[in-house]
Amino acid sequence: MSYSVWELVLFLLVVYLPALTLIVWPFRNRLRYSFKVSVVLILLASVLEVVCMYLAIHFEQLKSAFNLLALLLLPGFGMLLVKDRFPKVLYHTLIVFNLTNLVIILGKCLEGAVFHDNALLGYKWSYALCALAVEAVLFFVFLRICRYLFEEVIELDMESNEWNYLWIVPGIFYLMLVVMVYCSGRTTLELYMAPTFALGVLMINVGSFLVYWIIADLMKERDQNVKLAYENSILMEQNRQYADMSRKIKDVRKSAHDARHHLGILQYVADSGELDVLKKYIEDYSSAMVKDLNVIYCENTYANTVLNYYAQQCRQEEIEYHVRFELPAECSISDMDMCSVLGNLLENAVEACRKMTEGKRYIEVGGELRGSTFYLTVDNSVSEAPVFLKSGELESSKFGGAGIGTHSVKSVAEKYGGSSSFEYHDGVFEVSVMMRVDQQETEEEA
Length: 446
Fold this sequence. Notes:
- The chain is α+β, with helices and mostly antiparallel strands.
- The chain has helices at residues 5-24, 35-58, 63-81, 86-114, 116-119, 125-137, 139-154, 163-166, 168-182, 188-193, 195-272, 275-288, 301-317, 335-354, 404-415, 439-445, and strands spanning 320-325, 362-370, 373-381, 419-425, 428-436.
- It has 2 domains: 5-232, no CATH class; 291-445, Histidine kinase-like ATPase, C-terminal domain (Heat Shock Protein 90), CATH 3.30.565.10.
- The protein is built from 16 helices and 5 strands.
- A 5-stranded mixed beta sheet has the order 1-2-3-5-4, with helices on one face.
- A hairpin with a 2-residue loop joins strand 4 (419-425) and strand 5.
- 31% of the residues are buried.
């Protein structure tokens, strides 16, 4: 052997330790183990890489087996450390693997140009030095690639099957390199030292990263379109809630306006002494009225209308309905947003109670303005525990995926600098919403 073990160790650490770190770093928030354990495993993988290469050199008959093992160590440990979807990790690992092969080939080509005699001897110190020089030149490229192609794309909330076939793209580029090496008719050492071959590999990698870049752009654009469509559906739901409540408020005002005329007629009939006609008129008028309009839950017209509407729904469904609600007639929370939050929560609560076949069915609504913060709670009985997605959002019982109504509530709460929580405890679904209101308006109202 024309080089020392430490020169081999130095080369492998210079090349494979950064590669394994580059595989794991974008997933640092999704590690399967603690940070310290992950660091230890990265170092262990580097040591095993050295051992496999050393054994491949000294045991000619098992060279292929040890080379294959060394080849699988890098992606194997990367996927062992990361807790995420396997195809996603594989896609990222293969990209880094191709990048590592580029460093190895360019490093050997540079060594052949600067330290020609050492390059012929294998893993000399000069090989590690040249590989380190290549990594230094490509450092900012690595950094940009890591941020754009890896970190930003990995964070995309993609639950579909794109990752199941995207890994094939870097896999094909790796197979192209394998075919170029084994079909050249030259030794690996001769091939790596050839400037034309190194230039060809460099061009292939440049082309491959353009492809990865396009894939990243398409994935981001798709993610933005999905989010935009979802936000549009939320806006449509809010508009629907607002339109329904506006129509009901008009009915309230119309009923209040008509009530004066009905009272005049009732007074006239009563004065005439026609009691049968009076009784029939009162029955007809009572059946035509929108019930529960006389209940004043709070001073806010829109909130009061929503609460009255679902009071009527609960009475029809025989659901106990308890309300303690305080909200001034004017506050910084828009009528549309108030209708959206209350409407979505009460609609979901009524639907959940309607599905119950046994047990007490009830809905409890609480609203209180404390200082500059409005606190809203809606508790209702349910027949079964709701399903929470990995994102923390509730799964829709209507169509699967994240529920539009609950997401709308969350968006409105965040719009007013607040928050929302959805919890389940012992057969009760509990929702808490906090929204900040304009303190100046609150003081004027007081």
